[in-house]
Predict the 3D structure of the following.
Amino acid sequence: MGKDFEILDHTADVGVIAYGTDLNQAFANAARALFSLITELDDVEEVLYRDIELTASDEESLLVGWLNELIYRFDAEGILFKRFDIIQLNDTRLKARSYGEKVDSSKHKLKTGVKAATYHMLKVDKTDGYRVQVLLDI
Amino acid sequence: MSAPWKEIVRKIDDYRWEIPTSYKAGMLVPGLIFASEAMLGHSWEEQAFEQVANVAFLPGIVRNSLAMPDIHWGYGFPIGGVAATRVRDGVVSPGGVGFDINCGVRLVRTSLTEGEVRPKIEQLINQLFVNIPSGLGSEGKIRVKEKELEEVMVKGSRWAMEKGYGLPEDIIVTEESGSMKGANPDKVGSKARKRGIPQLGTLGSGNHFLEVGVVDELYDAGAAKAMGIESLGQVLLLIHTGSRGFGHQICTDYVALLGEAVKRYGISLPDRQLACAPISSPEGQDYLAAMSCAANYAWANRQFILHWARESFSRVFGKSQEELGMRQIYDVCHNIAKLEDYTINGKKEKLCVHRKGATRAFPAGHPDVPDVYRNFGQPVLIPGDMGRYSYVALGTEAAMKETFGSTCHGAGRVQSRGAARRSLRGADVARVLADRGITVKAGSMASLAEEASEAYKDVSEVVDITHKAGISLKVARTKPIGVVKG
């Protein structure tokens, strides 16, 4: 098993490439990459979960929508997620359960603020394993 | 892009470079980049170049897809990009404004001198750091209910002022008087509201900051005097922040919505992040109404922060506001879309001017320039990185003719945040700054490294190009002596 995700340098922002043996895993790894930018994942415990369901017109939009939903949960509810169980994923629909805990400043070091996931450089590639790419505005 | 930039751009003069429409099928107008040859040579980015060409695809774009000398690679639009579209048949693009809607800068004069502030700079920076919530995950001291948030969305700075945070004269010297017309809270979704409520009155993280600077050069003493900048060694305060998660969510929501609208209106684009809709369409109108809410939120935000900054100075120096003379010089936004009138081919035309990392630069005599500056031009505020300089400039008639009343907004990054973090340590950056006489307090050491001088172009080079090209003229320069980073 190779790496789960890579962080790409971009002058103003930061790119994420995530891999998986299927699309579900690639989406889960993209979410892990997102939270690895925000905090140290090792410091996060699984004490709560949130269910997320969303629809979009295609897989690329689903990926952006998925990450933006997680950014929203972090920003509005203060939840750090570390594990993602993608229950259903097809061209237009995603259903997932995400595990983590609320930010505790005595325990979690917050690193980078992420404003949003963008459609720039967006890719869902299934040619050689599953590989997804997205640019985050930080 | 395969060919090197020199084979694609055409030199117009020492500060202007054109990307012809022949570069890429689908470009409706040429690209026009403000840069020096030296700057193109060492800090040019092919992706930013490509993005200037992509913006030229937007339906209704007028004259040029413009790039200021602080241009760098963004998403969709380049940062430092300006595009004007015809209101009657053109589009509006949320990506042409960005996620941080009305990210902007507010400059405040003081009657203090470097000699008075230096001995207390650490105390002052600590006081500002304590008094103004900053950093990732910080919550504001302002507690608003949803109903009040809606008032903030409509009234902007005025709401804060009416609640006792600031003075009527602050509003007069704020772009749009701190409250943009056309804001409609009905067009703002519940997620933006949830992100917006706790973050009102926070500086944020990333490149946002407070800078205590000292005037070290005056280029136009007359204009400087009108701004209350009287002498070298005078201390000024710069506030740089925006609409926080509230604006980010509005952009997120509308990029998704307009991504669908693009298909309905049959618009073909080279980058999905350029998602747009006709200005006259319901989607376009709704975006502008929601964007205006975020713009007003940002102006209220900077108004709260100014109030706490005034309190902090009073406490540290034991002086009244009158003695401190903390008068706001001006407040500009550098991420916005505005409906403005221009003369195109001899005819008056209403345009939607997208400024993505660009500052409005209206000339003397323009009705939107406050009376106190009417004879000089609109003050343009250009922050640099925390180790070099910041500038005050004036808008010009040349900017009206050539750049839809726009100029640069800052230094512009040259190094990615990751590369900066890997090559520099926050603690080292703080030490280097201390050696240069700059006291820094940051929410996180990593963010300090990401924002080090080395990660940016030299703002002096950027400002010299806009000055020589005539789209804004230098008035004064400050060098920082204390910085609070989010």
Q: What stands out?
A: The radius of gyration of chain A is 14 Å. The interface with chain B takes residues 7, 9-14, 38, 56-57, 60-61, 64-65, 68, 71-72, 75-76, 78, 103, 105, 109-113, 115-122, 135, 137-138 of chain A (CB under 8 Å).
